[in-house]
Each structure stands twice: as structure tokens, then as C-alpha cells.
Amino acid sequence: ASCEPPRRPPPPPPEVAEAAPFALAPAVQRRLERARKHLAKRLLPNGPALKRRARSKGQLLGRENIMAISTGFKQVKGEVKPVPCVVVHVEVKVKDPKAVSAAARLPAGELKGFPGIYTDVVVTGANYSHRRPAIGGETLVRPGTFNGTFTCLVKRPVSPTQSGLFVLGCNHTLAGLNAGQRNVDPVIQPAVPGFTTDVIGRLTDYIDLHFNNTINEVDCAIAFTLPELVDPRIALIGAYNHEPRLAEVGMGVIAVGAATRRIVYGVVEAVHHAGNVDYSTNPLRVSRFFPLIKIRPTSQNNGLFSNPGDSGALVLGSIGGQFHPVGMIISGDDTFSYACHYATVLARLGAFPLTPADQAQA
Fold first, then answer.
1. How far apart are CA 214 and CA 236, in angstroms?
2. What is the model's pLDDT at position 77?
3. What stretches of 26-163 show up as alpha helix (H) in DSSP?
């Protein structure tokens, strides 16, 4: 099913960094991280972006069903328990372990060699649903490139007297690392493997990514779309104030990515972070970025702030009782997520946010 906006807005995220719900001794934290790496090496030998394929009836679920592996605490019927565990994020969850291939099967009980560490399985698979109008937070792709997340809607002049409506996303999702043909390439939603006919827009423009020592500020692209095809809200969050704001250290933030498929909570740890993003290894393509927003997940997540496939997710900050866009996710590691500054994205693309009147018409 599609991610539907709630009838009531979600609770605001914390304004300051919060403590974990259960304190772990440093030795346990190190053991937990070693256990995560151990399972990731066994279950994700080629990384989390294993090629996905249709599964016929009766076919066993394999490693392609696993989206990501993180650390957290065990959840039982929605309640977080003080049991440290390695969290395995899957696209489909089944009750019968015999329906899972031996290569993808998780050990029952305590992890061998890691005393006191258990496993938990959470359904956070990619959202391949077809929805019209499409809404921010769902999958988006240009055929032949990385799956990503529909960031939001923006406007940009298309003539001296008229503006058009555009879908915002990452360059590496919508333009294939500078390979996209402007005003030619289609943008597909949902990003179902092998499905290339459900066009939601046409790639219009993108900011080139540099793969040398040149500093990048943004990873972004836009695609022209029509009002009847899109919705100005964000999945699971609903309406928000489209006016951009600047992220601040200690600010509580939320997001919804197409892979994670739930509201995630975080805290801004830095707003002038410098770092590299490794887009591919063959050929090697590494981009240097500055400044980025560095985001730490809070204990509410029981996992990471973002996962593979969440690139493009809009980061919303709680300011004056309203959610405002402050960034868009472009990458992450085992602990933190990294986002471009949203105001910079708009400025570089020559775009601007939707007004309340625009939102009512879209």
C-alpha cells in the first residue's frame, strides 16, 4: 500500500540531542557494532543494493530481500525492549523461516560469538507502489540509474511571465551522475525494477557533480511535471511549510525516505560538515562536498536516519511549531546521514518553494 499522510501531524522531534532509552556499556556497544559488521558481511556481500528480481510463487526469499542492516534495541509489539540487537531491514517479512533461503536466514536467539546480542527484523522495504497523485517520500528513478526518493515539489520560471511545476530529486537519481539528457529523459514513479513506462516527469535540469578536487555544494536535479500527477505533501507527514530555513546545530529533524518508509527522527550535529561521497567503484567516482548537514539518528528510530534508496528525502526542521525544509539527504554511513542545504539547492537550480496558493492548486 502507498504511504498515506496521517490525519493528525506527527509529534515534533526533539529540539536537542537526547539520550538513548537504555544505556549500553562501551564494551557492549563495541560488541554490537562488531556483530552488525559480521552479519552485514554474511548477508550483504555486495552491499545493500543487491539486484532485485521478481519472486515467483513458492520461491524462497533470498538476500535480495534485505535492504540494510543497522543496530538498535529489540521491538516487541511496538514496544522497545532493553535488548541490544542487530536490526535487519527487509522488504518482505514472513513468519515461516523455511520460506527464507539458507543464505539469508537469521540465527535464532543470541548471536553466536556475540554474547548478549540478538537480532530483530523490521519491514522497511522500498516503496514500489503506484500512486497518483504521487507524493514526496516515494520512489523515483531515471531508467538505468540509482533508485531514490521524490524530495518535494518546487517551481521555476518557464517564461518571463509564467512558472512551471517540478519534481525535485538527486542528480545521481534523476540524472545518472551527469549522464541525463535535459528535456528528453523520463522520470519514473514508482521505481519498479524493469518497469520504465510510468512517467511522472521529464528531466529538465541538474547541477553537475564533480569527481575531482572541486568542491560540490549540492546533488540535485528537477523534472517538469503536471499538477494532476503530483501532491505537494510528504508521505506519512502530510502538509508542511514550504519556506526553507537554515539548519542549526541541535535542531530536531524528521524525514521520510522511499526505502525506510517511516518517519525518522534525528538531531543536527553539524551544519558545515565536509566529506566525500563514493558514488561508484567501477569506475571510481568520488565527490567532495562542503558544506553538508550532519544528522545523528535519535533513539526513537531504533536504526539509522536513512538507508540506501533514501537519497533525496526532504529533511524537515521543527521551527516555531511548524516543519520547514532545511536539507535533502544525499548519503549516509554506519552512523550518520548527510544532507545538502535546501536553500542552496533552490538557489543553484533557480527554483523557489510553493506558496500556500500553489499548494492548494497542486
1. 37
2. 62
3. 26-43
